[in-house]
């Protein structure tokens, strides 16, 4: 008799072929055969307390490692609980696979337990969504889903596997099991050579160029190419999203606080791996007089919401390397002449920094949020992965916190999802146990997925969590006050005064409460030294709002 294999074991073999070494999951009867297969294949099973966390962790795993993450959830509410995590990965261009259970094919349309049209729900927020129709096709469909994750700009895929398909056993020689490394082609594109030549000419003649290095710089692992580009051509660089940390703080080409000025005064603006979405004012913040170049993995993003002068579809690293090489022979002394432009931007940068500095050193009580994020920035090491999960408090941090290494900044991305922090910390520490992981939460954001602090304790994943606690959803509160007046400012956005440090201790971690700004740094040091998952609950002034909160157009 020929050897047989179950659908769940075929899933595990396909995951192993893709290099998946951990899955994030919450158990359910529809999916347990996958667990059995993972045990045999040496794939670790991390079980969380909410499926949203599992999906966010798979997203976070992808961002940290550059390899697709995987979450496995049961049918019905298990899959719908994971929708937010998949949607966040979709907007953030993060490749991951969600596998959902489903009722047996033999019970199709009969009203089986937890039966829902998962594929229909997932199709708009994935690059690929399908039902596995037979056990023989299980591994084949898993490999297909991973392949589709990398079509154009990366993103998530979804597979549902009916229970009888998953549990059934088929002859091993009848199942298609794609061989590792043999079912996906390289998707790296260098870009149109003629467009590269045009960009080189623009760089050679620009007097006041600047470049924005967005998340795709990290997605493409293009750090070295980006650094070589800005240094060889003497171009001031701004960074956003996962692109933060491409250049270290203090690098002469690293700029942060003068971006609006640069976008107004520059004659050449190069946007790499960032769409013209709300974060960019839909492109309207760029000077109409400037020549605008956009480089992106996805042709649909190039020129969306704003006309451009040159668009290049391709891998950020390959495009920047090719452009730098093409420009090197024709730039002459243009790079040296940009010193005045660099000095002009540095003066704007310095002025903005000095204006804010008194608040970063404020001894006010309640604590000024600027003091908190200043202390965090000073606390970071070159090996600290920083995660932001919140509204107003994380908006403060975006102005001050500067990761010291590439790939050491994580935020939800353009969907603006609260609740990613615990899952991202989990994935980051699991994937990179050699790194310190620090997450800044708003108290509202922490409340959404904070119970998975217990998962961090259970799997011994130490990290430093900081809650900027103002007992409010303060970003929304500001908008309501601005729009409806102070008398209606606290409708639906005020939280209880929760001592999250005590919550951490209750779940077996390290916890502290901080109300004095002088105690922030000592508390962070104790959290680091504890070797445990830790929460430092810092009580910040609820009457202070970040400039980014006050400038949001939705309230105007």
TrEMBL record:
It holds the Pfam family TPP_enzyme_M. One of its GO terms (molecular function) is acetolactate synthase activity. Keywords: Metal-binding, Thiamine pyrophosphate. Residues 389-538 form the Thiamine pyrophosphate enzyme TPP-binding domain. SUPFAM superfamilies: DHS-like NAD/FAD-binding domain, Thiamin diphosphate-binding fold (THDP-binding). It comes from the Bacteria. GO terms for biological process: isoleucine biosynthetic process; L-valine biosynthetic process. Residues 196-322 form the Thiamine pyrophosphate enzyme central domain. Its cofactor is thiamine diphosphate; Mg(2+). GO terms for cellular component: acetolactate synthase complex. Signal peptide: none annotated. This is Acetolactate synthase-1/2/3 large subunit. It comes from Nonomuraea wenchangensis.
